Here is the input.
Amino acid sequence: MATELGPTPATKPASGGTPVHHGPKGVGEDNKILSQGKWASWLLAPTIIALGIVIVYPIISAIIMSFQKDAGLDPVTGLFTEGGPAGIQNYVNWLGQQCAAPGGGTVACPPGTLGGQFWSATGTTFLFTVITVTFETILGFWMAMIMARTFKGRGLVRAAVLVPWAIPTAVTAQLWLFMFDFNGIINKLFNVSILWTGSEWPAKWAVIIADTWKTTPFMALLILAGLQMIPAEVYEAAKVDGATAWQRFRLITLPLVKPALMVAILFRTLDALRMFDLPYILTGGANNTTTLSILVINQIRQGFNSAAALSTITFIIIFLVAFIFVRFLGANVVEQSGATGKGKK
Amino acid sequence: MTTTTASTELRARQDKGRKAAQNREKWASARTYISAVVILIWCLAPAYWMVVTAFREVDFTYDTTPWPTHVTMDNFITAFDTSFGNRFGQALLNSIFIGVTVTVISLVIGVFAAYALARLNFRFKYLVLGFILGASMFPGVALITPLFQLFTNIGWMGTYQALIIPNISFVLPLTVYTLTSFFREMPWELEESARVDGCTQGQAFRKVIMPLAAPAIFTTAILAFISSWNEFLIASQLSNEATKPVTVAIASFAGAQPNQIPYTAIMAAGTIVTIPLVILVLVFQRKIVAGLTAGAVK
Here is the structure.
C-alpha cells in the first residue's frame, strides 16, 4: 500500500477505502483529507476535462463509428450504397481479410488491397516491436553500464546520446533514407550494393536499424537512472565478499534495476507498436513494412468507419500488451512513476 | 635467512598481485574508453553525416569523403526556396506557433493537476495517475479517424486548431507526469518555514516556491515543446499546404526533378530543424535527462 509522506500527517487508506486515524489528531485529519480531496478535484478538473475532450471523446466516437457501414460507391456496380448500422461486420472484415462483394456478402480481399493486409501488417508491427525493443534493451543496457562508470568525458557521452533522441523522427527517416540510398554511405562503407528500400528484408532491416539508432538513447537513459539508484556500498560489500563481476551483475545489478528496466521496456514496446513516422517516410510501407498505424492512415481516405474499426483493433492490441506487461511481467508503472513518494526510496 | 627469503617472496607475490590488479584496472579503464568512443560514433556519426551533406554541393551529394568537401551554403538557400512548391520557411513558423501554443496550454492546465498529484492526498489518486500515464501511451491512430471525420464535417481541416487540439492529447499527459515527479522532489517544507518566519502565504509562494518550481516548469516546457515539434502522424493528415509543420514539410520535400530526391536540401532543412533542439538539449542536459527519466524510476 502506498504511503504518502508529506508535510501533512501520514494517513493510510485501509481496506474499504475508509481512512484510519492514527494519533490524537484523528478528527482534524479527516477534515483535512476531505478538503484535500475537494481541492484535488478542482485542481485536476481542467486536465481531466481536456483529456476527456481530446482522448475520451474521440475514442468513444471511433468505437461508435466502427459499428457503422461506410457509405460510398459500390466498386463494381457503381451505385451509391447507404451507410447504416453494420454490427461487427467491419471487425469481421478486417480479421477475416474480407472485402465487400458486389451484390452484398463478402469475398476474400484480393492481394494488394488494404483489406488483405491486416495480418501481414500485424505481423510486421510485432516483428518490428520485438526486434527493435530487444536490440534497444541490450544496447541500451550496455550504454547505461558504460555511462554509469566514472571516467573523464562521461559528460560528453551522456550529452551525445541525447542527439539521436532530439532529432525529429521525420528528419531521422530522411537521414537514414539518404544513408541507405543505393549510392549512399552505408553501401560504400560496407562495400555492398544493396537496394535497401527495394525488397522486403533489406527494407525491414533499414527500418529496424534506424529505429534502434533513434530510440536506444531513451532506453539507455532510463536504465542509467535505474542503475544510479543502486547504492555503491552494495557493490563494495559484494566485492569484499568475493563476488565476481558476472555475479555482481547477475545478483545485484539485474534484480535491482529490474523495476526501471521493465518500465523502460514497457514504454518502448507501446511506442514501437504504434510505429508510424519512420516506415511511412523511409519505405512508404512498401515491401511489407506496412505497420498497423500505416494501414489505418491509408484506410482513412477509403472509409472512415472501416478505419475506425481498424484503429480500435490496434488500440485493443496495444492495451492487451500493456495489460500483460503490468499484470504478468511486473512492470509497475504507476508505483514506479513515483506515486509511492519519498517513503519507499 | 629463511625468514628474509620468505618475506622477499611474500613481497614479490604482493607486488605481482598489485601489478595484476593495476593491469586489470588499466585494461578495464581502456575498455571503458573504447566503449565510450563506440557509443559516441554510433550516436553522432549519422547526425554528423547530415550536417556534412547539408554543406556539400548538390553535384557531390554521394561523395563519401568523411570530412566536409565542396562546401557550400546553397542547400540552405534551396531549402527555403519556394519555387518547387516547398514552403519550408512557413512550415518553420507553423511548427513554432503550434509548439508554443500546445506547450503553454498544457503547462497552464497541467501545473494544477501535477500539484494535486504530488502534494495532496485524495482517493482515486492512483486511478488518475494511471489514466494520465495511459493517455500518454495512447496510439495516435486511435484518435485520428474520428478527428479526421469531425474536422471535415465542421470545416476545420487544415486549420491551426485542428493541429493544436490533438497535440494536447499526448503533450498534456507528458507535462502532468513530468511535473508531478519534479514537484514531488521539491522541499515543500520550506514553504511552511517561510510562513513560520513571518511570510504571508502569497510571499511564501512568490519568494520560495516559485524560484524552486521555475526550473522544473522550464524543463517540462522544453520536453513538451520537443514532443510537439517532432509530431508527424496527426499533422500529416490534418494539415494543409499553408499550415503544415516542418516534420511534414521535410517528409515531402520536392526537388527540381520529380524523380530525384533533393537530399542535400533535405539535409540542410533537417539541420535547421535539429540544431536548435540539439543546442537546447545540450545546454539543459542534466535537467532534461532528469525530466525524461523522472516518470520512470523515482
